[in-house]
Amino acid sequence: MTDIAFAEPTVQERGRRDYRAAGRFARHYVEMLVAMAVGMAVLMPLWSLALMPTGFELTDHIALHAMVMATDMSIGMGAWMRWRGHGWRSIGEMSAAMYLPFALVLVPYWLGAVTADGVMTAGHLLMLPAMLIAMLLRREEYAQAHHAQSHD
Question: The pTM is what?
């Protein structure tokens, strides 16, 4: 039997590998933002059309509006993640990153400290670091090539 010695990767090779992984991580983040926007752009008008005959306006009920919007974004992002090979657990964690910011901002809204516009603005802005945190908790999953992932 022949012993094959495997050389340790050079600093330069490790640097290239880390650079590619960081690029995949960043690309994945942007892809999810686009998928969320598509989910919101496609589904929100459908809600408006469905509710039109009733006269019910989501914008008059900020908590419901925020949760419907988080749902629309979660559907778009979750569909994209599933298509890209992510498991249900990762999709659930990322979906929680859509709801949690709104849930947190609704408390000061109900106390009169934040306006309805403030809820929507803060909820969307807080979603960005919430998504990043969820991704960093599973850094390897989001930094690898999509085809290398398996469903759970």
Answer: 0.79
